[in-house]
Design goal:
It is built from 6 helices and 17 strands. With about 325 residues, the chain is of the alpha+beta class. The strands form 5 sheets. It has a 5-stranded mixed β-sheet. A 4-stranded antiparallel β-sheet has the order 4-3-7-15, with helices on one face. The chain has a 4-stranded mixed β-sheet with strand order 6-5-9-8, with no helix packed on it. InterPro entries: LigD_pol_dom (IPR014145), NHEJ_LigD (IPR052171).
Length: about 325
């Protein structure tokens, strides 16, 4: 029988269990995961606000089978806000995170990874089945995501060069890109934009991927075939589908060691070497936040964010 501990977070009552359970091979425990999400909540919650959260849960820890979870699980507390999203297979009741207690509850479920789409509920049309994902009432994205997935043979230095080329191309179109690690081996660029129909953002991202591939065929590839990615960086434009999601800044990843999707400065990107690592531990991320603040705050869309321009030819 699992040991359960009653606690309170900002006036919300929670029941936590198995805090000493190792979730990673290095001994990083469930209790440490909960503590990290509790400590990082102040800077992470604004990037989860008003967004549907897809969770990757690891019932037996990283390295064991995991599963993606979109619907709110049985027993979801009443104080956790849920929002219905209409899909072709029926409505999905997504959970959201508005307060520290929400993150603690998710971590207690062994939801190591938190992923969100590029749109917010506030910019989406509500139908009878919830937020509408398709058609003329599709959500309006406030972020363009450029996911740079390194194929075999691509080093962090190569990824940095690809990120700088992509960001330069975007800058020539009047868009500012902000870099972060995926928490694993890749880099992701986030571009704040005025609310734009998700299908238009997807089309722009696809055109950008094709442009980068045509201009730099020895560095980029835009095909999803894994056999074509050797020695190349895959520009995963499909991350901009309304139904897709991307790992949220400051989320832990369920790898062999706990690593966090970490916002970077462009100086840090430019300094990457072939033997650099793109993995950052939760403890180091907390230290970075203490020293640098929330680097991801600058990429949050505002009323002055640019409109999406015509795609590159």
């Amino acid at each position: 029988m699992s040991e359960r501990i009653a606690t309170e977070v900002d006036g919300v009552q929670l029941s936590l269990s198995n805090l000493d359970q190792p979730l990673f091979p290095n001994g990083f425990t469930k209790g440490e995961l909960i503590s990290y999400y509790l400590e990082i909540a102040e800077v992470m919650l604004p990037h989860l606000s008003d967004r549907a959260i897809t969770r990757v849960r690891f019932p037996d820890g990283a390295g064991a089978p995991s599963f993606y979870e979109k619907n709110a699980p049985a027993g979801t507390p009443e104080w956790v806000r849920t929002v219905d999203v209409a899909t072709s297979s029926g409505p999905i009741s997504y959970v959201t995170a508005r307060q520290r207690a929400d993150l603690v509850w998710l971590a207690n479920l062994r939801a190591i990874e938190l992923h969100t789409p590029q749109w917010r509920f506030v910019d989406a049309t509500q139908g009878d089945g919830g937020v509408i994902l398709d058609g003329p009432d599709e959500p309006r994205a406030t972020t363009l995501i450029i996911d740079l997935d390194p194929g075999p043979g691509i080093t962090p230095e190569d990824s940095a060069r690809g990120a700088i080329i992509a960001a330069t191309t975007l800058a020539e179109l009047g868009l500012e890109a902000f870099p972060k690690t995926s928490g694993n081996k890749g880099l992701q660029l986030s571009v704040p934009i005025q609310p734009t129909p998700a299908s238009e953002v997807y089309s722009f991202a696809q055109a950008l991927a094709r442009h980068l591939t045509a201009a730099h065929p020895k560095l980029f590839v835009a095909t999803m075939s894994k056999d074509a990615r050797g020695g190349l960086i895959f520009v995963d434009f499909a991350q901009n589908y309304a139904a897709r999601n991307t790992v949220t800044a400051y989320s832990v990843r369920g790898l062999d060691t706990p690593s966090v999707a970490t916002p970077l400065t462009w100086d840090e990107v430019a300094a990457l070497q072939p033997d650099s690592t793109l993995r950052t531990s939760p403890a180091k991320v907390m230290a970075r936040v203490q020293d640098l603040g929330d680097l991801w705050q600058a990429q949050e869309p505002t009323s002055s964010s640019p409109s999406l321009p015509a795609p590159p030819s």
